[in-house]
Amino acid sequence: MLDAVLAILVLVGAFFTLVGSWGLAKMPDFFMRLHGPTKATTIGVGSVLVASALYFSFNTDGVSLHEVLVTLFLFMTAPVSAHMMAKAALHLRVKQVERTRSAVVESGVVNSYDGTPFRRKE
Amino acid sequence: MLNMVLPWAFGMVSLALLLSLYRLLVGPDVPDRILALDTLYLNTIALLVLFGLLQGSALYFEAALLIAVMGFVGTIALSKYLLRGDIME
């Protein structure tokens, strides 16, 4: 029973990791590419880590908490790093696909960096 | 059953590493390359944990935790450098 649960968790985790990287390689522009690694890969690695935590909790004496530490750390840091990368890309104005381009940002009325209206320096 | 599934999991994570490497080499802009590095370290953590499962050794989590911390700091430092032109202000 435990063996089957572990096998399913490992397989699902590896599959989601693969899907995240596939999205990273295939999507047309940066803001679409950001979706794959930040969501799919995080849940994939989390699933593999949960499988490992279960395995070592049942096969050694005592509960194994190292993996929970790594999982918590990854789930806390993934949104932060994604936010920082998106801010950097908006600041650099990387190329976007035509249909995801915002007319308001393109016209220069609002700042692409934080969405506030532009104010010229005196 | 786990021993039957592990080779497939290794194959899938290795393929994911190759796809991230492709984006690291091709990526047209600098943020793409930072994102590819971020994905590479996440995939490496998955591969290390799978290897720990295969060997039945709990020794690899310290390495995984170190990679997680250092990778996060690296991603934040590179993004901050792109954003401000400086890391510590």
TrEMBL record, chain A:
InterPro entries: PhaG_MnhG_YufB. The chain crosses the membrane at residues 6-25, 37-56, 68-86. It holds the Pfam family PhaG_MnhG_YufB. It comes from the Bacteria. GO terms for molecular function: sodium:proton antiporter activity. Keywords: Membrane, Transmembrane, Transmembrane helix. This is Multisubunit potassium/proton antiporter, PhaG subunit (TC 2.A.63.1.1).
UniProtKB/TrEMBL annotation, chain B:
The lineage of its organism: Bacteria, Pseudomonadati, Pseudomonadota, Gammaproteobacteria, Thiotrichales. Keywords: Antiport, Cell membrane, Ion transport, Membrane, Transmembrane, Transmembrane helix, Transport. It comes from the Bacteria. One of its GO terms (molecular function) is sodium:proton antiporter activity. Belongs to the CPA3 antiporters (TC 2.A.63) subunit F family. It holds the Pfam family MrpF_PhaF. It is a multi-pass membrane protein. The chain crosses the membrane at residues 6-25, 34-54, 60-83. The keyword Cell membrane applies. PANTHER family: NA(+)/H(+) ANTIPORTER SUBUNIT F1, NA(+)_H(+) ANTIPORTER SUBUNIT F. This is Multisubunit potassium/proton antiporter, PhaF subunit (TC 2.A.63.1.1). GO terms for cellular component: plasma membrane. The keyword Transmembrane helix applies. It comes from Thiothrix caldifontis. It is found in: Cell membrane.
